[in-house]
Amino acid sequence: MPKPVSSVLPVVLLGCGGVGRHLLHHIVSCRPLHAKQGVAIRVVGVGDSSSLLVADDVHSSGFDDALLTNICAAKSAGSPLSSLLGQGPCQLFKKPEANGKVIDTATVLGRSSGLVLVDCSATYDTVGLLKGAVDHGCCVVLANKKPLTGAYEDFEKLVSNFRRIRFESTVGAGLPVIASVTRIIASGDPISRIVGSLSGTLGYVMSELEDGKKISEIVKTAKSLGYTEPDPRDDLGGMDVARKGLILARLLGQRISMEDINVESLYPSELGPDAMSTNDFLESGVVQLDKSMEERVRAASLKGNVLRYVCEIGTAGCQVGLRELPKDSPLGRLRGSDNVVEVYSRCYESSPLVIQGAGAGNDTTAAGVLADILDLQDLFQKTA
Amino acid sequence: MPKPVSSVLPVVLLGCGGVGRHLLHHIVSCRPLHAKQGVAIRVVGVGDSSSLLVADDVHSSGFDDALLTNICAAKSAGSPLSSLLGQGPCQLFKKPEANGKVIDTATVLGRSSGLVLVDCSATYDTVGLLKGAVDHGCCVVLANKKPLTGAYEDFEKLVSNFRRIRFESTVGAGLPVIASVTRIIASGDPISRIVGSLSGTLGYVMSELEDGKKISEIVKTAKSLGYTEPDPRDDLGGMDVARKGLILARLLGQRISMEDINVESLYPSELGPDAMSTNDFLESGVVQLDKSMEERVRAASLKGNVLRYVCEIGTAGCQVGLRELPKDSPLGRLRGSDNVVEVYSRCYESSPLVIQGAGAGNDTTAAGVLADILDLQDLFQKTA
Ligand SMILES: NC(=O)c1ccc[n+]([C@@H]2O[C@H](COP(=O)([O-])OP(=O)(O)OC[C@H]3O[C@@H](n4cnc5c(N)ncnc54)[C@H](OP(=O)(O)O)[C@@H]3O)[C@@H](O)[C@H]2O)c1
Ligand SMILES: NC(=O)c1ccc[n+]([C@@H]2O[C@H](COP(=O)([O-])OP(=O)(O)OC[C@H]3O[C@@H](n4cnc5c(N)ncnc54)[C@H](OP(=O)(O)O)[C@@H]3O)[C@@H](O)[C@H]2O)c1
């Protein structure tokens, strides 16, 4: 059998939190597997909120595995990237010089070996770097939703060469939602509707409500189990779900923005962050939601329905909020924190395409990012 | 915005039945969409069981859309490919010369513009052509399971350059099963188990049995509705499911063959094709299965379970047959003819990744083939 030629993918990683560190770990542990598949990933830069560690020679084979492992250990212990200096042929750039160095690297590698700029940060601030990288012919992979959910022009720019961008983990973490929707679109099967439960936290809340618990108790338990954001209102407000909905809507070709999405928050503004602290919300605020939620759950149940917090993308744009759904639908059957997405199209008309599974977690999110990187391999130079 | 460069994909299609014709139809109707995406498919040859119609100049822009439409119309009316001669600059080759012409085309185009050899036939006979195409650096896309389920060496040869082959529609038609499993494997997330209901016909049979109907009545109704193969025993025997299981098992790296798969047939050999005709089976054979099936359904139901015909791939190989499953599992909840696949891995450990939807039909199968062809586009020459 002929030895397969191998592709080499240089990577700069922005963001070295839970997801970024898992990605570096997966890259290291998959080396033998990827070698067998004829592909090699070389990490030539890693950035966080304050600085960028970059290989002295970005044309080199990149950081060695010991350095990558040490980056993970240091960042997870709360040490700065500067603590890694001297552990390999690399340099440190502080912000804002760090940003210039990312663009330099994109310029140097974009049109020669190619470069994948991977965004595992959680900020809008990377969008300029990502657009710059696209301008220089680089590829972009995102777990970070924010660059895709800002101005429409930014989205348009980032996807202008659609073969060079991947963003699977922005919706449903590693679940193959974006890849599947992209396949359906490419095959000319027009998607008429996508409905999904895209928040593990809200999925958990809804299924506990169905079991008769009070929302105040559910939220407090979820917070203590680490299922929620530090301020649970970041989940209950629905903005994170709306961002995922916007990405799907834009993928379907809708020229809309966050302000066009109708988002139903599970708490009123009187209980919002401007009105009270997280602690006050947990101690005296959330309990004020118990009665009305109980009534909505009961009203739904009287009709044989259940209440779900869903994101719905149709021809009329994107809506996010509570819906009464038949107990016996894929969304109605959902229990616990799994995500589920139903896609309706000509081929999936009466019975939708359903994709379901864990839609959060550093491991699966990073696995999705890694699969995205590898999916770009045909664009990279092959060596015999 | 920079105009995206475009990829041109020359295609030779083997098999012009229900799926092949739908594929040609989709290719024609998607031209504007694909042009926007910067990709163009040019069909330079179409073959059936007796001959091959091929463009005079395979470097040309291929058959025009009028000819492609006429090919579909002629084949669907039962006319031979020879009836198309004179409708464009093309030639006809009869078998066995037709096979030589396929290889010639693969030789000429494989190392220049590239070629995608698409197999929408239903025979083992194409395997030699497919292997030849691989040898010449061509890409291969299959809806036909047979070339992947013969000798292990054939499979190994066909997937030897894994980036150049796609076979989504061999399992679950257009459902993104193979693509999703491939992503999970590439990300280093080891798959421990796949369980699926991979036959729409048997899914229908099982859900009707659950509703208390007799298997003899169900099979006769299904046959009259066109849900089964001409001889329903081709569905009831489980071999088609076993072929899908074998493809999944081989994808997971198992070096196994059909004879290693434990397949439970729903009818005993006394009721098989060697013992009686299709008509006799329908009139006096299948009724002999009523009592034992009724008992199995009842036994399952007493334990709160339902009976499903499943394919299970684990570390111990592949098993195909009836299983009692909790009513409340993704497989147990399945109704009607949808396929469903559960994938268990490190990331999907307690709760599997579930993919569900229509797993048969010419439209969705052809859409899956088309998505596969487009997924190869980065391997093809770009024109500015
Ligand atoms: N975890 C999940 O289940 C999941 C699922 C789907 C999607 N995602 C998305 O994945 C992304 C990463 O999530 P996470 O849980 O890993 O977040 P995280 O733990 O908060 O990590 C964020 C990282 O980004 C860095 N960062 C902040 N600003 C930056 C900048 N301007 N340039 C470069 N890096 C910057 C942070 O730097 P410091 O280390 O200096 O703070 C930190 O390393 C988020 O966008 C999240 O929404 C996560
Ligand atoms: N339909 C579905 O729902 C579905 C779903 C998943 C997968 N598939 C697979 O897709 C494939 C096509 O299905 P189909 O329903 O379109 O089958 P079909 O209607 O029976 O068509 C088969 C086609 O293959 C041609 N053929 C036979 N031997 C050939 C050979 N040696 N070389 C080239 N062509 C040859 C036949 O030629 P003639 O026209 O001369 O007879 C016919 O055009 C099958 O392998 C099937 O298992 C189908």
Question: Which helices and strands occur, and which strands form pairs?
Answer:
The structure is a homodimer of 384-residue chains.
Chain A: E1 6-14, H1 18-29, H2 31-36, E2 39-47, E3 51-55, H3 65-76, E4 90-94, H4 97-110, E5 116-119, H5 127-135, E6 139-142, H6 152-158, E7 165-166, H7 177-186, E8 191-197, H8 200-210, H9 215-224, H10 233-236, H11 239-251, E9 262-263, H12 278-285, H13 290-302, E10 305-314, E11 317-326, H14 330-333, E12 338-345, E13 353-358, H15 362-375, E14 382-383
Parallel strand pairs in A: 1-2, 1-5, 5-6, 6-7, 9-11
Antiparallel strand pairs in A: 1-14, 2-3, 3-4, 8-10, 8-12, 10-11, 12-13
The complex binds NADP nicotinamide-adenine-dinucleotide phosphate (2 copies).
Protein name (chains A, B): Homoserine dehydrogenase
Keywords (chains A, B): Amino-acid biosynthesis, Methionine biosynthesis, NADP, Oxidoreductase, Threonine biosynthesis
Family (chains A, B): Belongs to the homoserine dehydrogenase family.
Describe the structure.
The structure is a homodimer of 384-residue chains. By secondary structure, the first copy, chain A, is α/β, with parallel strands linked by helices. Chain A has 2 domains: 185 residues, NAD(P)-binding Rossmann-like Domain (Rossmann fold, 3-Layer(aba) Sandwich); 168 residues, Dihydrodipicolinate Reductase, domain 2. Chain A is 38% helix and 22% strand. Chain A has 15 helices and 14 strands. In chain A, strands 1, 2, 3, 4, 5, 6, 7 and 14 form an 8-stranded mixed beta sheet that branches. The radius of gyration of chain A is 22 Å and the shape is globular. Chains A and B meet through α7, β13 and α15 of A and α7, β13 and α15 of B. β13 of chain A pairs antiparallel with β13 of chain B. The complex binds NADP nicotinamide-adenine-dinucleotide phosphate (2 copies). One NADP nicotinamide-adenine-dinucleotide phosphate binds next to α1 and α15 of chain B. Chains A, B: Its EC number is 1.1.1.3.
